[in-house]
Amino acid sequence: MASIARWRPALLILLLQFFLLVRSPVLAISPGSVDGYTINGRIKIPVAKGFGAPVKISNVKVILNGGQNVTFLRPDGYFSFHNVPAGTHLIEVSATGYFFSPVRVDVSARFPGKVQAALTENRRGLTELVLEPLREEYYYEIREPFSIMSLVKSPMGLMIGFMLVVVFLMPKLMENMDPEEMKRAQEEMRNQGIPSLSNFLQPAAAAATARSG
Amino acid sequence: MGTMLRVFLLLLSLLSITAPAFSLYEDQVGLADWHQKYIGKVKDAVFHTQKTGRKRVVVSTEENVIASLDLRHGEIFWRHVLGPNDAIDGIDIAMGKYVITLSSEGSILRAWNLPDGQMVWEAFLQGPHSSKSSLLVPASLKVDKDNVILAFGKGCLHAVSGIHGEILWKKDLEAESFEIQHMIQTSGSDLIHLVGFVGSSQFDSYTIDAKSGELLKHDSAAIPGGYSGQASLVSSSTLVVMDSAGSTVTTISFQDGKVTFSQTPVSTLIEDFVGKAKLLALKLEGVFAVKTGTHTTFVRVTVEGKLEVVDKINHATAVSDVLEISENRQAFAFVHRRSNGIDLTVKLGADWNHDLLKESIKMDQERGSVQKVYINNYIRTDRSHGFRALIVMEDHSLLLVQQGAVVWSREDALASVIDVKTSELPVEKKGVSVAKVEESLFEWLQGHVLKLKGTLMLASPDDMAAIQSLRLKASGKSKMTRDHNGFRKLLIVLTKAGKVFALHTGDGRIVWSRLLNSLRQSETCENPTGLNLFPWHVPHHHALDENPSALVVSRCGPSDDALGLLSFVDTYTGKELSSSSLDHSVVQVIPLPFMDSTEQRLHLLIDASGQAHLYPKTSDALGVFRPELTNVYWYSVEAETGIIKGYALKEKASDDYSFDTRGIWSIVFPSESEKIIKTSTRKLNEVVHTQAKVVADQDAMFKYISKNLLFVATVAPKASGDIGSSTPEESWLIVYLIDTITGRILHRMTHHGAQGPVEAVVSENWVIYHYFNLRAHKYEMSVIEIYDQSRADNKDVWKLILGKHNLTSPVSSYSRPEIMTRSQSYFFTHSVKSIAVTSTAKGITSKQLLIGTVGDQVLALDKRFLDPRRSVNPTQAEKEEGIIPLTDSLPIIPQSYITHALKVEGLRGIETVPAKLESTTLIFAYGVDLFFTRFAPSRTYDSLTEDFSYALLLLTIVALVAAIFITWILSEKKELRDKWR
Known about the structure:
heterodimer; A: alpha+beta; four-stranded mixed beta sheet; 7 helices; 12 strands; disordered C terminus; B: mainly beta; five-stranded antiparallel beta sheet; 65 strands; carbohydrate binding (chain A); Beta_sandwich_EMC7 (chain A); transmembrane helix (chain A)
């Protein structure tokens, strides 16, 4: 095992162990015929806990090199690409409702079977080709449940709130005012010839001046 | 008080900017958008009706789709779109529960679960060389309790376990270029016969033990007279082939290791036979069918090997495969078309004189000839046999026929859209007021109270449904007239089938559809293919009573030098006004910005020899065109040789309406280091609002706006393959911006370690392109913006005052202004299938990119994210201008997918059309599916949204008025009290 430990991302071996453990016929990369290798991998989608219906595994597509090959998932989540030449490839996963990072997969010709995989989004190396979504995607805005705040925050709510403040708070403020100062202010107003409505609506008059000022 | 007001205003402004540009609530789905699912032209079909439960038919199509359809309604139960290189060669149902598909030239065998479409297993079949492929699912062949599926592909025969998909055995036939014709299982035995041909003259027959894969026998013999590629199996030991001349039928008998031939000239079977005969694929015991011209002749092969004519039908006929209805009773169907429908005949194979079924089915529209028939039987209540037939028509539509009527039909031509244009709807006529009050005030109020409940989240599901239907009704979006906002239009769609459809943008329904006569197969035109659609006649305000028409340009074959065809279609009725076959080819069509006196648009058609032809061919059009002759330029891109050439017209014309051309410039790319993989230009009808762009610090930049900008991307020849086929050191991507009038290269940029595929979009003064960065192993998107430096001096106020500016100098395509470019690159996560940009009526609204991702979704991305002036720390002034701090990759916000939770399977293109309302653009995305939506790149700033709650507004006003009165009364009282005091 010491020599294996020196193989940094010894994916094949790891998966071999995996294979022995779960007796599943999956290897990450297996030398195929003369002209290509096989990439095997697995997609794990957590049970949907958030929004919307859980994604159907039959609607998940795995795409190699931007559409060169497209494959589908087996019921257990495994997928494979056959006849892939040596080189550095890109695997993308299309699953509605989930965001998957594309995966860079190196298929080595010199060491058949040696493979390196890394997520391109966060450069995280993968020890085995098990892909999990980075996050869930919800395509709709979520309607805020009804709350007094949302009503108050709406333009209409603000207007009503403003009115209420003027009606109930202003008289209080006026009461605290010095009566003489008040008289002077009213005097001033009359001199300025403010529209006659302010005569009736004396508490509101202060607000009117605030708006004009 | 003042601060309070300010807070109020601030809150208001905050509220208006927090939401993202495109966002949709789940209950708004279907209000402004629609989505349609298609499958494409059916290639093969298998019925599954034995078991009780849902009756279905599984089909494979030319669009690489495998789908399970409901036999009752034609709806899709499940569907999978395979990769573009993964064409399906054969399908079948195994063990009553799996659908087996053989694809990619016989190299991938997959099993799908029949009820839900889940892939069960996948087997990869390998072989030494490519060959024809064939699939056989024997009904009663078992190896160790496991059903065996036999697949021939790549020169090898594979036996695959039906349960696990493991390869049981593999037999390499070792014969180079063995083309398989048939794979036969002799009933009751484990022997498999493979019959086929090597080259065009050798017949081969193999007998293989299905249990072990052992080759038991191999016979081969030369066929006298050659072989045309058509063969029909008449019994398990007799094959009929047509010779290469199409005049002699050869019967091959390969029983008991002996191969014997007997030849019969077709003329002895069919009187007055001329031309070429074709064999129809018919798998009927003892009978084969010969097609000569429009006739179909059924010929029986007797036990002694003699041929006798059984029946002759004077129509082009499609024949179905044989259906085993009971033991030793085989039925088959043939269908031929009549003037206004089709005739379906079902016969028993053994008894020619008796028809099991003869039905005439009326069809309400032209669907062309019958291409394929699949039959299936059911037992009627009186225990007799009933038949249903699945028919594929020339227009790619799929019909299910039962009891003399079309039960359902699918317009699957819409899965292969070639080109899209829009047409305005008719104006509302006076007197017919659509806006009339259709409901009482009470109903109106009730509706709004419901809506209010909805916004306050108080509505019950019933209420929600009522709201949804109210919304749909209120919007009147499916009316057949123009609306103020320009949302209602007709989408004119040209499909591969040669059928033109008009879809209503409101609900996506087909307003009319027409199979163009000029685009149907004929003697003179073997393989017509549509190329483009152009608006031909768009009536203006003074001629609004005329119907607009569209021009369909097509050619007779796939090659460039095939003769062209023109067809004119009325866009209101779908009538084909006229059509003409041209005496020259069509390589390029240039719509000219001129109209003749009847308001027909002038078009210039360029043929393969470089001649230009003017249409319409009227002296009037010529009169309009002649003065403008010297101003017409175009270019051609020869991707194979790497040459881009610019052309102008010559004054002297050879004939009245055709003009000689002269090359004026050419750009040759070195073929050893560059290969053209993408060119892109601005959309012709794009509107730019202003040339000036105000940047931070009250500075201005002048956009270089030219309609003649061509974007060209070239890659190293070594890196022109797929990702993974080249290393970063040997690949590079070079992009050019070329002025197509002068041939001037405005800008050139090299991306080292990058490769294609490149997708690009050009708009206003910028280009955005998407490519693969091999070093980072990520996709990248780059932007290039071009600014006109010659106008930059105009910012000087003194020059303006002294009149030393050049603002009044005309913008000319001939001028060579100094330019400045700015560019920047960003990472982008996904592969991209197509990029488009929103377009609005006046070009004022800011733009968003529409990116068709590899997952078949369309993402809207604000152009501001692709601004080359983004920096890590934008200054305060730049922030105010709206510059986003630099990030290395572009964000993907799930809420900005305009396709929301839907997919446009097999996405191929995105078309944007401006609405009349400046803020809004209409988007049509097409592939195997169609998707349409309305989109406001900077939100609908110029109209209230449909969600606007009038009831809430009313309520507020009422509340305000009430408050005024209450305060008034209160103040009166207070005043009175004060007076009493």
